[in-house]
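Please predict the structure of the following assembly.
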Amino acid sequence: MAAVDFAQQTQEELPEPRAKARPRRGLKQAWQYRALIVLALPAILMLFINNYLPMFGIFLAFKDLNYTEGIWGSAWVGLKNFEFLFASNDVWRIIKHTLLYNLAFLVLGTVLAVLLAIVLNEVRSRILSRFFQSAAILPNFVSMVIVGYLVFGFLNPDLGFVNKSILEPMGKDPVAWYASPEYWPYILLLVNTWKTVGYSAIVYLAAIVGLDQEYYEAARIDGASRWQQMTKITVPLITPVIIILTLLAIGRIFNADFGLFYQATMASSMLKETTEVIDTYVYNALLVTGDTGLASSAGLMQSIVGFVLVLTVNYVVRKISKENALF
Amino acid sequence: MDNKRTNPFIIIGLSLFSLACILPFWLVFTISISNETDVTKHGYSFWPKQIDLVAYRYLLQDSASILRAYGVTILVTIIGVAVSLFITSALAYTLSRKDFPYRGALSFYVFFTMLFSGGLLPWYLVYTRFLGVQDTLLALILPGLIGGFNVLIMRTFFTNSIPPSLIDSAQIDGASEYRTYFSIILPLSLPVMATIGLFTIVAYWNDWFTSLVFINNEKLYSLQYLLNKTLMNAAFLQAIADKAYSNTATVAQPLESIRMAMAMVAIGPLVLVFPFLQKYFVKGLTVGAVKG
């Protein structure tokens, strides 16, 4: 959303360069602005280390990385890493999981967040409204590690609330949750929604609060009920916001939330069949099995597809509403 | 008539929703104050059969590892947030200056990092091979120092709320660029600093990923990573219990409640400050939110 501002700002600013004396060129000009350059330098350097050096490192996907030979000494292997990656069935599975999970998160998350925002907007008491908002954002405030604990509280196979206090009294057999992949799509959908819906709802609520109140006054004078006001005014008016946020989320659909898939499942390898996504796959290849070829090629594939997606989505957003485009 | 009062169904619905948000925390809290025999017999429940603070007493006996992890997290958070706010705002200020000749190129330099990433492996190698900071506190501090998004949010703030004439007049009065930045820009940017600062605090406080990737030395475990280990590694939990219990007899160790008590010790302070920070947190979430 800040990107929205960024885009607006770029467009506002570009046509009005400051009316100063004709800028001098080259080194002289740099010298004139040396103080500003010095101020910017630490951050420039940090972005270079943290973001640009890894970008240059994508060539590693075309090498057989060998720590004893070093990064430069390792042999070039062309596309062999990618051949290995795509020869395994894993790659299609993790792509499918990443896309389907993100899609499900997006659809359910958006519907519930909009609903929650509309409902929160109906609360007249300030104290209650504040309390509900607090409760809604609390899950967003805690780390994924804590989320792992909370899930474990319910799903611990021996003592967990679900097995001991729900299934046992009903006379059903306990479920070995961390070894039963078939349940996890639903569990992860629930956990992710629980953690993120309050946050998105607050964003939508901000959009709703910002709507022109005159529409509502006019509607009330015409005798519209609150329900009619919600469905006929609020929802249509925030639809552009929903579309933009959805498109932006689609731009990130190839990137999974590593924390969710790693912590909520307690990194159980028995759940891979339904819970392995690109990000956990790359992590495992790099730091658990040490297969750097798979890690680098899968990582590069993810970066490139993600980049293309963002560009495409931005192109679409620009067509719909120029001011909401990222660039 | 129905404008003044909220529909009771809405109140009920939202109350249930709030309950769903809070209850999981309550479950973990209850386990932490439960008697171990009750827990092993009846499983986790939302109401303790009898209150037993033995787990907390255990943790007090061997508080060294927790205190250490707290210390690591606090240190990393303080240094990280201070440095991050400084370098982020300095870059954002430079970008907000319309007379700065490299503004376009530098904006693109920042923006491109939000579009494309090199992936985990090259990123990992930069820190371990190039900088060689694995198993040092720097590995926990450096990765979180700067984010393109924060730079752009701050830049927007500077361009929108600091009039160029203010900078001009300060410099006509003889203030250097540094002086302008430190004594005029920074004091005026407290609101955006508070918002970005809060988010950076939460990001550092909740970070476990950099520890997972870079830290092997137990002494440098951050709080979240210590918790992560306790949850996922039964042997690690056992070691903590053994250490605390070495001077007593062979009674069964309350492993279940110790584990959850550790989570509570970590969540506790956060939940206590949350109501006070919530207002700023909401403001931060909606910073630059799309206009309706």
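The longest helix of chain B spans residues 64-96. Chain B touches chain A through 115 residues (CB under 8 Å).
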